[in-house]
Design a protein that fits this description.
Layout (H helix, E strand, L loop, with lengths): L5 H12 L2 H8 L3 H15 L4 E4 L2 E4 L1 H27 L5 E7 L7 H12 L3 E7 L5 H6 L5 E5 L7 E10 L1 E4 L13 H4 L4 E4 L4 H12 L8 E3 L2 H9 L4 E4 L5 H6 L3 E4 L7 E9 L6 H21 L1
Parallel strand pairs: 3-4, 3-5, 8-9, 8-10
Antiparallel strand pairs: 1-2, 5-12, 6-12, 7-10, 7-11
Helix pairs in contact: 1-2, 1-3, 1-4, 2-3, 5-11
Length: 304
């Protein structure tokens, strides 16, 4: 069902693809048709929407402004289509989510598994990103929902759910710190350290305890991948730092141990589920939200 101008869809496709040709391929239409719609839209608005560069197309200032409007139009159209389908008893739809990598190990498979059992005709698309990159994906309309740890408050984002999870040192069972009930960052400084870079919220959360430690905290390895840091710790190449989210399989299997970090008390990270403020959710997205919210709350209660 198309209840909006093709120019809107083509603009959004070109914005995401970065070129007329790639957008046409994704839309399964001729490049000339996409180009014609973009030129028509620019003529109607009286301003270029893209900068034509040798490496592709880049949004102009006017294009950045239009992006927010297009996101609202397309999401509202999807919501209307979903609600009309629901009236006919058709439980179809599409859910698009951007989530931090650590949720891919166990959390998202659990949520998606339940979603598929209850709504098997709904299509789901998931993209991984660092916590700090999640808000832009939601606000630009690239996805319906974002899931990230410890995001700064943003009035343009609505937090649908939040769960607190304690950060800990991640080591092998035979590591000297594995038997401790809790550790300080200073206790870990005598061993090789595997730390996240600034793309992940863990580094920001750990900064105050590093400052207060009184020790020179120098990581042996820095990475922006939870999966990589976990695998390095499993090979006993250093101490990694993260929550239990993403470590479920390793903790159950006994290959890794999560020792809570303390710095004048426990150190927590917050897992949040986000949507664009004042937006309306399509039926399929709302169903996904209900399952994800319940899973966040269940795991947060287990953590307590």
């Amino acid at each position: 069902m198309r209840i909006h101008s093709p120019a809107i869809r083509y603009f959004d496709a070109v914005r995401k693809a970065g070129s007329i040709r790639e957008a046409a391929r994704r839309l399964n239409v001729a490049s000339s048709a996409v180009n014609r719609q973009i030129l028509k839209l620019e003529a109607e608005l009286g301003t270029p929407l893209f900068e034509r560069l040798p490496g592709g197309l880049k949004l102009s200032s006017a294009g950045e402004v239009l992006t927010r409007h297009v996101a609202i139009v397309l999401r509202d159209a999807e919501r209307a289509r979903s609600e009309l389908d629901a009236l006919k008893g058709i439980k179809t739809g599409r859910v698009e989510v951007t989530a931090v990598e650590g949720l891919s190990a166990d959390f998202l498979p659990s949520v998606i598994g339940q979603m598929q059992r209850e709504h098997s005709r709904v299509r789901i698309r998931v993209m991984s990103a660092g916590s700090l990159n999640v808000p832009a994906a939601v606000l630009n309309g690239d996805v319906d929902l974002g899931m990230a740890f410890s995001l700064p408050r943003n009035p343009e984002l609505h937090q649908l759910a939040v769960g607190r999870f304690q950060l800990g040192a991640v080591v092998t069972p035979d590591h000297p710190l594995a038997s401790k009930k809790k550790v300080r960052i200073a206790d870990c400084a005598d061993f090789p350290l595997i730390m996240s870079d600034t793309q992940l919220s863990i580094r920001t959360l750990m900064h105050p305890m590093i400052v207060h430690s009184g020790r020179a905290i120098t990581p042996t390895i820095e990475a922006n991948s939870i999966e990589l840091m976990k695998n390095l710790a499993e090979r006993n190449l250093g101490i990694a730092f993260m929550s239990r989210i993403g470590l479920e399989k390793e903790i159950r299997g006994g290959t890794l141990v999560h020792v809570p970090l303390e710095d004048r008390g426990p150190v927590f990270t917050e897992l949040g589920l986000y949507m664009r403020a004042n937006a309306s959710l399509p039926v399929a997205v709302d169903a996904f939200v209900q399952i994800a919210v319940a899973e966040i709350r269940r795991r947060a209660q287990e953590e307590e």
